[in-house]
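MFS transporter
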Amino acid sequence: MSQAASAADPSRNPYRRLFALPGTLAFTIGNLVARLPMGMFSVSAVIMIAGARGSYALAGAVTATGLLATAVVAPWVARLVDRHGQARIAVPATAFALLGGLSLLLCVHYDAPDWTLFAAYAATATTPNIGGMSRARWAHLFKSEPEALHTANSFEQAADELCFMLGPVLAAFLCGTLFPEAGTLAGGILLMAGMLLFTAQRATEPPPSRGTGAAPPLRAPGMPPLLLGLLATGAVFGSMEVVTIAFADAQGHRSAAGAVLALQAAGSCAAGLLYGALKPTGPAELRHPWCLAAMTGLMSLPLLAARTTGSLTALAPALLLAGMATAPTMVTTMTLVQQRTPEGRLNEGMTLAVTGLLGGVAGGSAVGGWAAEHLSPATGFAVPTAAAALALLIATGHTASTRNKRRTAASRRP
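Tokens:
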């Protein structure tokens, strides 16, 4: 079959099916524009604060405070989005967050007291979870078509990887080439422009769910172990980033760390697009442990390369291969989040998942940094491997428990 014919056949080109629906291409463009700054803001803040105050410790503390504030505020914002609609809540929430970013910029520029930096950056926590809102739209559009939803979730994961791969590079380029505040300013403009375009597509927006009375996602069956698994998965990402930078620095090639880490994101992006083109076999609940097992196995490759060769050149392809298990794992995890979140509270459920992931990133960064400093950078690669194994243990434990409960219930039936 020709390539043109293949593209015209949705069964052979599932991504074409996604964007055949009116409004999906427009909200996806807005989503990508608004999502790119998510990978820019923290890097821009670190460069801006460290450059002006001469303290990476202060810069790190400010960004950590912002992460903690996001963990507290983001689920509340998502709950409002579910109850009142994306357009009604996301735009003013974004505007308030941009005021916080602008305040941070002014406080740094005019040498305000250090405490003002913490307060200003904490105000950016109202930034809506644009990835969660986009996934909620796909879930609304394809709620009765699991194969199409699988493709959409895979595309969203690939978009995550692409934006978090390009965002830091763009931020560093703008701050270094123009002026230290350029990354924050550009990120704010992109975020608002993308959010306005995204929310303008009202035909694809899920209807508000006020008055459903659904239980909070945190108490939904199967959600607590899933969120614990996301904490462990986030620790994989956070520790891998810090340990890789430490390893490159020890080899005298710290400037190459970003390019090497980009290979991991590139591997995940490519694997996510490929995974979305395939038809899923079996329920996501059964695929999930297998994806985590593959991630655990592939995450051992960077440890093996670092310990046996001590070479950044050998580490690069190992990270590329390790990244290929990331997207299928995250796609399957987010599919389970969608399935287990009570109806009408999907934005809140997706935001809880992202919050758990970010919490794991923060913890993994701390543990990975400790291991790289007190043991060795090469040994530090054991941390992401161990975190992946922990996520696998949590998933298999939950699966075994669920099976036992089903068998017990079946045995009690008359």
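The first helix runs from residue 3 to 8.
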